[in-house]
Structures are given as structure tokens and as C-alpha cells.
Amino acid sequence: MSFLFSLVVHAGNHLREFCPVSFTIPTGNPVLRGNPAGLFYLQGPGGETVPLQCEETHDDLVFHWIVERLLPGESRRYDVYSGENPASEAAAGVRLDEKERQIDVLIGGTYFTSCVFDPDLAKPYIGPVMGPYGDSFTRLDFETKEHPHHRSLWLAIGDVNGIDMWNEPKDKHGKQRLAGFAEKTSGPVFGRLKMSLDWCTYSEKPQLAEKRTVTFYNTPAGGRIIDLDFEFVFNRDRVEFGATKEAGPLGIRVAESMKAENGGTITNSHGSIGEAECWGQRAVWCDYSGNVGGHTLGIAAFDHPDNDGFPTYWHVRDYGLLAANNFYFAGGKLYKKGQSVRYKHRVYFHEGDAAAGKVAHKYQDYIHPPVVTRVEEE
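Predicted structure:
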């Protein structure tokens, strides 16, 4: 083992708890001493081994890890070494287990959720999403007659060239078909899926292509994070997204016991509470919390500043729907062949309500992450 350099994480103005951080360095930088991506490990200020995940991107190497806690204004130094990691991180990481029509996500060896790609269904979904006490944050009920197309967590738009890709009217709805995977990554810090999908008519005539990246972080069961990064590519013809309230593209259906009709609470980043105050209003985040298995749990959806129409309007309902939607409130969109549009969202699954779950702090982790600097002296 050989010391290479140190990385200092600066909390900035915000509290950081189990916050993903990263640092990018050119692969040709001499401080790396020619070591390949798999031969680095990280030590914290007390000499403890910190799970580290290295990712090669083009001509760069990206170091990823999770900072457990930093107060506003604090900094913490981590040392980077070359050589074999002295501690196994496999059991504590994020593992993707492939099955016939789904990929299960395990964190620390415990089942968290699944990405389901069932060709018998109109679109893929993520769910159930298991909480810290063994019950799901989300609803996944194929028996219900009430919004049966609301499957846990999904992406959809209710009007794509006049095709309904949100609702599922019999023999008329659109479909999302998995075209293939570009990446399936398990690791000590995150698991990641990169996939291509075709959005089609019911007869499976393609309308647009989608590139979707889903990242699952190795954080505690009471504070899980899923990042969604997806790009619509209009590579065949003009595409019109209609002004429909069934739009998303992000849609989440909370657990039945969590919904406001059963005593749950809807809150947005302005402090507005309930459907009457939050529906159709713009906000950088919206949270839905309530009772799940005798415990208060919540789901917060974050809008990224780079997204078209930021901050988004919210289509959020007392019956349990949480969806980001600009198309209904701000009007539809027409895209020409050759254009594309990209969206990024973070979904934070937490214990407690929005205040107890520190949702406002977690949003700052997303849009203003800690700054990381390099120090070469040991």
C-alpha cells in the first residue's frame, strides 16, 4: 500500500448526513502513479477504511464515497492509497441481482427494491421500495381498480403524439419497451443501471427513444436515495407532449396508509401543506409522509435546476399520487426531429415527516453538494 494524496470535503453552508460526494481527476495525472481504477482505497481521519468506488469516464477517474456527517462550515480530510483494499466492502455495498424480468437491488445484503421490465406491462417500474421496518414506502397493487397503472415509481407522459402513455386504456395505451442495457454496476457506494427504451404505440411503432440512468446509493435504510437521469431523444419525427395532468414524467404512488386520505401529509419547499395548497404549485421539492406499519415514513421528490421549466409544478393528490408535471400547468411541448430533452430528479425515502427527515438539507446535498479539493502532502 502507498499513500498518494488527500481529499478534503468542505460542508459549506449546509448540514451533511450520509451525503454522496465525488472527486474527478484526469487518469493521466501523475499523482495516480498509473494505478488502475480498482486499486485505490480511502481512509478517514481516524484511520478507518471508507467505502470507495472508482469510475472511469472518458479521460477521467471519478472517486465516489459517502460522508456520514459534517456540520455547516466543517471540513474533513480523507487519504487516498494505492493497492488492494484492506477491508472487504462487498457485503455493505449495493448489489444488483438479475432475474428473468427484473433486477433486484440489495443494499448491505438486504432487499431494497426491484427494477421491473415485464413485457406484459405497459411500462417499467421501480418497486416495491422497502422501508427500514419491512414495509414498502410505495403502493404496488395489481388487484386494485383505482389507478392500477400507478405502480410504485415510474416515468410516463399522458399525451405523446396523442398516445396515452400514462393511463392504460385497454388495447389503446402506449408502451415503453426495453431496448437494452449500457451498464449494470454493483459497488460499495452505489449501484447503477443505464438502459435504452423505446416509447411506442400499442402496436409497438416507436415514437421516441429514451436513455435512462437509475442510481441507488449505499445509505441507511431510514434515508435511501434514488437518482433518476433520463433523456428523451426525438430521432424519428416531430414529437408533441400534450398539456395533460397525467404527465409526470416522474410519478410516485405512496403506500395506501401514507396517503393524505388516511392521515398523511403533503408538504412542499415553500412550507405549503396539503393538496389544496400544493397541487398545481411550483416548488423545488415536494414531500409526502404518513403512517407505514406503525411508523412515520416519507418520500421526497426533488426537481433539478437544469430541468426544463424549473421549478416544476406538482400534480400531488390526497389519494396518494406524487408527480412532477409542467405539461399540464405550463402547456405542452413540441419537439423537432433531432432534438432532445433531459430531466434529473432525486427521490429521497426517509423516516419521519419532512422536518424530521431533514428534506430541505437533503435537497441542498443534491443541488449544492460539498466541495472536494485535493491535497498532495501527507
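Summary: The chain has a mean pLDDT of 94.
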